[in-house]
Amino acid sequence: MRVAVVGSGVSGLGAIWLLNEHSEHEVHLYEADSRPGGHANTVSFAVPGKQAVEVDRFLRRYTSVEILPTEMTFSVSRDKGAFEWAGKDPSTVFSQRKRLLDPRMWRMVYDVLRFNACATKILTEDYEDFSIGEYLEREGYSDGFRDDYLIPMTAAIWSTPPDVCALDFPAKTLIRFMENHHLLQLTGRPSWLTIRGGSKQYVNTIIDKLPKPQLHLSTPVVSIHSERAPDGSSGFKVVLKTALGATETYDHVILACHSDQALKILSGPTGEEARILGGFRWSQNEVVVHADEDLMPRDKSTWSCWNYLTSSTHDSRGGKKANVNEVALTYWMNDLQHIPLEAHGPVLVTLNAPRDPAHSKFVSRIAYAHPVLDAQAIRLQADMPSIQGQRGISYAGAWMRYGFHEDGFTAGLQAAVALIPEAGKGGLPFEIAVAEREVERWRDRVQVVFEALEALGVRAAVGALLSFFLAVLRLLLGVDTD
Predict the structure, then answer these.
(1) Residue 403 CB partners (closer than 8 Å, separation 6+)
(2) What predicted TM-score, i.e. pTM, was given to this entire model?
């Protein structure tokens, strides 16, 4: 079989790796850019007076090359450091000591513990499908938990503005994701992984094994269309046209690109293809690689792998609105990729920076699009099987699941393995395992405790007393927590 893969991001690389190294198919890779890899992009970082280092713009990976453990710590900084906290340890949660007198902060901590223990109940019982915003309101979670913890974390994970999708996100999907990635536990979290030398290591490993005549870089695909096979069989041939004027015919084409790009490439899409592929939304994000510490939390003790930066605005009633429709997120690459601070200085990658970094600390800039995983996207993901493999065309992308690097690689593998007959050469050398964890039963006992505290009004009574006590202390000490 002659197969074309359009797009050399992680999904395309997954498909190419399997088809090229574990099947008898002749596989060709088409990439519009001059370099393969898509979001897996390693750049050289150098600022005056410091050593150069290779750094990734995209941080989640799946690979067989040398890997190292890393962290996934998180911080929030609002209004240029007026409000800050980090989740590395108890001291960084209260890095601003005045927050010890802030009842909103104590309520947030309580609600984090309650959410971690109780949220998984929605996965094991017959709950209706409602949004995370509706879930938080129904269960009585505080504004501080919503605005200073859950929304920033959700927006940071998916690089999506808070008002775009955070509260509209399906509750079951979000909680299942958090459980699968050990985000609902404070201890015993497994290490995340990074690549020694950057993601270019695995990109090059896959590309180097593809015969050079079958690698088509700087070759945008402008259209594909299916035709009935000339031998009269029920099969199809897929005609592919490039921006360079070339026309090639393949037995199958895998569109390993964004959904909107796939729809644009399809000539004469069916109504179902147009509905599904056109229904996904995308968020545009600008990425800046730099060394400007002003795009990090003010308090260095709170510096984390992921640092959420935002500013308060005012709503129609003149009150402060905790979340705005723009999110800046700075990755601290020194911590993520074990880059020595002494040798290279701060190595930072910021999405949607509120301002440009200082010119002397600027390294590079690029634009990326990330899927908006709202309720509509989750519904469309469930409909994808209806158009997969039809007329000799398949689709692969991280947008078909949670939007993570691993999701993209898995989607590429699944599209490719469907083209390998069981009796053929090799096939997938391992089983594709979906990362679904079983809910740990110890949570049941803890859930009972929190449910009792809420139902009996104990939390409300203690909270009122604590708020009064802290208000008196603030007055006596002259501390302002606003």
Answers:
(1) 158, 370, 371, 373
(2) 0.86
